[in-house]
Amino acid sequence: MWKTLIKPQISTLTRRTLTHSISLQLLEQNIIQSQNQPHFSTLCTFTTTERPTISKTPKFHFIRSSEFLGNTSGFCSVEETRCCWNCKTQKPFLICESCGSVQPVDHSVDYFRIFGLERKFDIEDRSLEGIYKNWQKKLHPDLVHTRSKEEREYAAEQSARVIDAYTTLRKPLLRAIYLMRLEGVEVDEEQTVSEPELLGEIMEIREAVEEAADSQALKNIQSQMEEKLRHWFNSFANAFGSKSYDEAIKSIQRMTYYHRVNEEIVKKL
Predict the structure, then answer these.
(1) Whether this model's pTM surpasses 0.85
(2) For the chain, N or C: smaller number of CB within 10 Å?
């Protein structure tokens, strides 16, 4: 009699085990087949309680999971690498144009792109302030205080980055150093130039600043420094444009010296 009682249970367990085994085999076969097909790829959902789904779509990877994405209203292509964390719109910027959500900082977006500028030394800096103020109106933490904690943190980080971008781009010396960094060239601002002629000139200028009798004398020296800076700004722009990075570094070093003298003059005025 006990055989009769446990027989249905064994049959049920066997069917469940076989079904699960077959399902796993079919899943593995689907993955292998899709990987062998050109221009197709597969991706299973992660960290979700839902049953994994496999999408076979030309040149796009789709993640389908309400828990992983937050909702299933849209899909984000991995080829685009970024999509809005809230509405899944592709290619969001600092703020998603579709839903208005502040996005996490994307360091692949350089300072020039934040301000809609071409990556070059000579820029129209007159437009920087207006763009800067527009970003701050949208990103300032005080203006998103009703949003989630995560989005408020995104706003604080984005706002700080916009400030840094504005400061960097509006100052020619910082802009030049930043451009070189984007090209993978680090510039040591503290490196001493071993050119007696330049060092002698700088010493004479500093002595003149110290001995200046009045503000007019200081302004005259300042005018000379600004002229020298313009010369080396142009020199850097030409060197950077032609990818002559050694010459570009040389220009930055001279810009640094004259800029420091200018700062000393400003302090005394």
Answers:
(1) no
(2) N
